[in-house]
Design a protein that fits this description.
Blueprint: H1 14-38, H2 41-94, H3 100-181, H4 186-198, E1 205-209, E2 212-213, H5 222-230, E3 235-236, E4 243-246, H6 248-251
Parallel strand pairs: 1-4
Antiparallel strand pairs: 1-2, 3-4
Helix pairs in contact: 1-3, 2-3
């Protein structure tokens, strides 16, 4: 019956698993070095893309507000035209009134329409001022978007150039990494990835050099060094938590 371990097809020794971890660390370190070349470019590109999205949203909102102001302006102008027509009609009716009460009633209607015109014209002035402000905001937002767009293109081109140049190397490293992972138990991979995230330089597996941990440089006792060389179990540095392995070059 097959087991659930990744190493089920081949029964690798603990020494082989430890060395596979060491090889995986060397491969991941090479990928880390390539990513370091990119520097802050990925984050800068992401920030600029976020800025562009925010600016586009702002531009869309301003355009919507301008459209609304245009619609309100047209509506108020129609109201003014309607009121003027009404005033003309009422003035014609005043010529045919039969008494003072009808005349006064029509006069009040004329005054009401004149007030409606004044209110509409006041609103039109407010809309015109708001429209001027919105158009200025739109110009500023579009200028900022153009500037950010130019920066984004430069950063994207630079990042894409680096990625295109390093893609074959990264692909080869990823294949080699998968081959190394095939020899390692899932629990060891989980531990390895957790340590990589917790240490500053991503070095989860380090060698013992000159009787010291290759990660934190603290002294490793002789007996512990002997256990590391035997490779019968995973040895963790008690100071920094990294996985310790014997230096293959020294062992040879």
């Amino acid at each position: 019956m097959a087991t659930q371990k990744k190493t089920a097809e081949v029964d690798y020794s603990m020494q082989e698993k430890i060395m596979a971890l060491y090889e995986l660390q060397k491969i991941d370190s090479k990928i880390d070095a390539i990513n370091k070349v990119k520097g802050e470019l990925p984050l800068e590109v992401q920030d600029l893309e976020d800025d562009m999205a925010g600016l586009q949203t702002r531009i869309d909102n301003i355009n919507a507000e301008i459209e609304e102001l245009n619609a309100l302006t047209k509506q108020r102008k129609r109201e003014v035209d309607t009121a003027k027509i009404q005033i003309g009609n009422y003035k014609e009716q005043q010529n045919n009134v039969r008494n003072n009460r009808e005349y006064d009633a029509i006069t009040k209607e004329i005054e009401y329409q004149e007030l409606e015109i004044e209110l509409a014209e006041k609103r039109l002035r407010e809309y015109a001022a708001a429209m001027k402000g919105k158009k200025l905001q739109l110009e500023e937002a579009e200028a900022a978007a153009e500037e950010r767009g130019a920066d984004l293109k430069l950063k994207r081109d630079e990042l894409e150039g680096i990625e295109a140049e390093t893609a074959p190397q990264v692909a080869a490293y990823e294949v080699a990494a998968e081959e190394a992972k095939a020899k390692i138990d899932e629990r060891l991979l989980v531990a390895y990835n957790r340590i990589r995230k917790n240490v500053r330089n991503g070095m989860a597996v380090v060698t013992v050099k000159r009787d010291a941990c290759g990660g934190c440089f603290n002294h490793i006792p002789p007996q512990r060094q002997s256990d590391i060389r035997q490779g019968k179990k995973i040895i963790i540095c008690e100071y920094c938590g990294r996985i310790l392995v014997a230096d293959p070059e020294v062992e040879e």
